[in-house]
Design brief:
about 400 residues; alpha/beta; Lyase, Ornithine Decarboxylase, Chain A, domain 1; 2 domains; 12 helices; 17 strands
Length: about 400
C-alpha cells in the first residue's frame, strides 16, 4: 500500500532469512506528518503508542520527528527514554500499574500518569507522598460509547476494564485537586482500536469536553485533552477516517476550550508500513482441502489466530497456475496456527515467498517463543537503505534465563 520504491523481498530473504519483519520508516514518517498536520494551528502532541511496535529504532524514528510516547508498562517507558523521547513527552497508561512502576514513573518526571481507578489514584498519591513530590496525573474517563470495532479491542464501554465513569472521574479530580501530592493536568479517553467510524469518537469527545467544562466551573483547570489513539487503517476494503475529519471532530467538541490536544496513534502510523516475509516449505492436501505450509507461525504474527484478522498475502512465485483457495498455516502445534483461511493463491513450490501485508502494528510485539521457536529478525528501510534493527533469536537466547538453574 505504501511502497513508493520496490522492496526486493527476495534479496532480503536471502540476506536475513525468513521469517522476517520489514518496516518502511519513510512510510511511517509520512503517516506521522499527515496526522500532525491535521492538528496544525492548535497546540498538540502526538505520542506514539509503543505497544503497536516497540522496536527501539521505530520509536527513535518517531522521536526524531518530535513525537512523544504512550506507554503501558514501565518497560515501554524505559524504551522511550532509550530511544530519545524527552521525559516531558512520555505518558504512562494502563489499568494495572504496580507500585514499583508508579514509583519509577514519578522519579523519571514524565509528563503525566494516566490514572484508571479510584484505587489507583490512592496508590499514586501515597507513593508521591513517600517521595515528597507532586505527581502530574490525568484521569482516563470511560464515556460508555460503542466504538463499533472488534470486542477484543473495544475499551470505552462499561463492560471493558479501562477507565472510570463520569461520576467517579469527578470525585477523583476533586480529590486530586485537594491533594498536596497530586497535580491533575489532563483528561484522557480511548474507546478502542481500529476505529473506522467517526461518530463514536466525536460523541466521546463531546462527553469528555463537557466534563472539562464542569470541572472548570469548580476551579479545576486542566491543560491536556488526551484523545487516545485507535484510528483505523485499511487491511482489506475498510473505509477509514481521514485525519483532517478526525481533527475537525475533536476541535468542534473542544470549542471554547484552550487545551493541548494529545493523540496516541499506533496502528495508524505503523500497520501498513510493515511486512511479514515467510517462506513456503511445501503444500499438502487433506482430501479436497489445500494447505500451504510456511516457516512463519502464530508465534510470529498472532493477529489472524487471535482476532481472525485479515492480512493481504502476496505470493512471489514463477507459477502461472490459476488461483485456488488454500489455508496458509505454520509449523506450530495448534490448529489455530494460520495466517489465512481459504485464501486464493497459485500453486506454490518449496522456497517461494509470501509477503503478508499490513504487519507493522501488533505483529512482532505480540510474538512469543511458543514451541521453543526463536522470534524473527527485524529490518528497517529508510531512503532505500536497509539495516538490521533486531537480530534473529537463537536457541541459546531462549534458554539463557533457565540454563544456570538446570542442575539446582
Amino acid at each position: 500500500m505504501f511502497r513508493i520504491f520496490m522492496i526486493n523481498f527476495k534479496e532480503l530473504a536471502s540476506t536475513y532469512k525468513t521469517p522476517l519483519y520489514i518496516y518502511d520508516l519513510d512510510a511511517m514518517k509520512a503517516q506521522y506528518e499527515q496526522l500532525k498536520s491535521a492538528f496544525k494551528g492548535r497546540k498538540s502532541l502526538l505520542a506514539f503508542a509503543i505497544k503497536s511496535n516497540s522496536n527501539l529504532s521505530v520509536i527513535k524514528n518517531f522521536a526524531d520527528l518530535g513525537s512523544g510516547a504512550d506507554c503501558v508498562s514501565i518497560g515501554e517507558v524505559r524504551r522511550a527514554f532509550l530511544a530519545g523521547v524527552p521525559n516531558y513527552k512520555i505518558i504512562f497508561s494502563g489499568v494495572g500499574k504496580s507500585d514499583d512502576e508508579i514509583r519509577e514513573a514519578i522519579e523519571r518526571d514524565i509528563l503525566y500518569i494516566n490514572v484508571e481507578s479510584e484505587a489507583e489514584i490512592g496508590r499514586v498519591e501515597l507513593i508521591a507522598k513517600e517521595l515528597g513530590v507532586q505527581c502530574r496525573i490525568s484521569i482516563r474517563v470511560n464515556p460508555n460509547i460503542d466504538p463499533k470495532t472488534h470486542p477484543y479491542i473495544s475499551t470505552g464501554l462499561h463492560d471493558n476494564k479501562f477507565g472510570v465513569e463520569i461520576d467517579a472521574a469527578k470525585r477523583m479530580y476533586i480529590r486530586a485537586n485537594n491533594s498536596e501530592h497530586l497535580d491533575p493536568v489532563g483528561i484522557h479517553f480511548h474507546i478502542g482500536s481500529q476505529l473506522t467510524e467517526l461518530d463514536p469518537i466525536y460523541e466521546s469527545a463531546v462527553i469528555v469536553a463537557d466534563l472539562v467544562r464542569s470541572l472548570q466551573s469548580i476551579k479545576i483547570e486542566l491543560k491536556f485533552f488526551d484523545i487516545g489513539g485507535g484510528l483505523g487503517v485499511r487491511y482489506k476494503d475498510e473505509e477509514t477516517i481521514k485525519p483532517y475529519d478526525y481533527a475537525q471532530a475533536i476541535l468542534t467538541a473542544l470549542k471554547g476550550l484552550d487545551l493541548t490536544i494529545v493523540c496516541e496513534p499506533g496502528r495508524f502510523l505503523t500497520a501498513n508500513a510493515g511486512y511479514f516475509l515467510t517462506k513456503v516449505l511445501y503444500e499438502k492436501k487433506n482430501g479436497a482441502k489445500r494447505f500451504v505450509v510456511v516457516d512463519g507461525a502464530m508465534n510470529d504474527l498472532l493477529r489472524p489466530s487471535l482476532y481472525k484478522a485479515y492480512h493481504r498475502i502476496e505470493a512471489l512465485t514463477q507459477s502461472q497456475t490459476e488461483l485456488s483457495d488454500a489455508d496458509v498455516v505454520g509449523p506450530v502445534c495448534e490448529s489455530g496456527d494460520f495466517f489465512a483461511k481459504n485464501y486464493p493463491l497459485p500453486i506454490l513450490e518449496h522456497n517461494d515467498l509470501l509477503v503478508i501485508h499490513s504487519a507493522g502494528a501488533y505483529g512482532f510485539g505480540m510474538g512469543s517463543n511458543y514451541n521453543t521457536r526463536g522470534r524473527s529478525a527485524e529490518v528497517a528501510i529508510s531512503h532505500g537503505e536497509v539495516k538490521l534493527i533486531r537480530r534473529r533469536e537463537e536457541f541459546e537466547d531462549l534458554i539463557a534465563l533457565e540454563k544456570e538453574y538446570l542442575d539446582n
